[in-house]
Amino acid sequence: MTQILGQSPQITHLMRTIPIIAASDASVLIYGETGTGKELLAHALHAQSGRKDKPFSTINCAALPTEGLEEHLFGRCNANGEIELRGKFLAAESGTVFLDEVNALPLSVQAKVLRFLEAGECQLQGSHKLHTVDVRILAASSVDLQQAVSKEEFRADLFYRLQVVPLNLPPLRERTEDIMLLLRHFGREFSAKNAVVRYAKAAEHCLQTYAWPGNVRELMNFCQRMALLSPGKSIQAEDLPVEMLPEAAANDHAFVLPPTGIKLAQVELDLIEQALEMAAGNRSRAARLLGVSRDTLLYRMQKYDL
Question: Is-above-0.85 flag for pTM?
């Protein structure tokens, strides 16, 4: 996947703001669950910036080496003070550095990363001289950094310096309008010279109501699997993985009846109100969240005078 795809209001708004944010050198903090496309968004910001012809470097903070970490990030000088190894920051001179899973950045180096953010200065191993580098910083986190700050797991000053411009990538379950668009796009992309996989209406309904816990990455993997194993086939609901079927969700007992019982009408009203709030008032989307038709939702809204 090389571009951000979608027609949902969240993605449409994001696409409109990317050129504006890309034109500045402000630090950007991208929030989103695993698989939502945070690195893709970082690439889009770099590609539309004045640094697009310069290096783009990704640092996966969750996979940084335990030994030689500062050397890996900043570099090393020899006994004569000459640069012997250019770290990730120096190697991205005039370009963009993307700190993926920045929440995993060890506290031991957060102060030095903060200094780099504030002044573009980094101190290489074996040298007392500060080296200045012109780099734009983008960062991403799949956890709430504000909570990490509260737990003293992340420096508050670094958090505020990173979050000059916060961006949120919604999970796929909150942008159901994009699911069929993405399925068709990746279906064509992975089909190669074979016929494109198609989906029956019942299968489409299952795929649109499935929660997609792995988000767009899971959807991509699913499309690749379908293209390999069922080229040109019309996929029926029974051809889908069992976890994607509505019965699978029902068997999970998401709602457990308490021994004291419930007021069914109140539960229904609460769920309708929650769906409308999640859908920002969009009744079609709220109906999909509830797994009912729009007409059914309108009837029940009228029933409860909503």
Answer: no
- What is the token pair recorded at 155? 């420096």
How far apart are the C-alpha atoms of 127 and 86, rounded to whole Å?
Answer: 13
Taken in order of first residue, the domains within the chain and their CATH numbers are: 9-170 (3.40.50.300), 172-254 (1.10.8.60), 260-306 (1.10.10.60)
Q: Which two tokens stand for residue 285?
A: 């989307």
User: Which residues, 6+ apart, have CB-to-CB distance to 184 below 8 Å?
Assistant: 196
Q: Output 55-58 pairs: Cβ under 8 A, ≥24 positions apart.
A: 55/91, 55/92, 55/93, 55/94, 55/95, 55/96, 56/92, 56/95, 56/96, 56/98, 57/88, 57/91, 57/92, 57/95, 57/96, 57/97, 57/98, 58/98, 58/100
239, 230 in Cβ contact below 8 A? yes
pLDDT digits (tens, 9 = 90+) for 262-276: 888 888 888 999 888
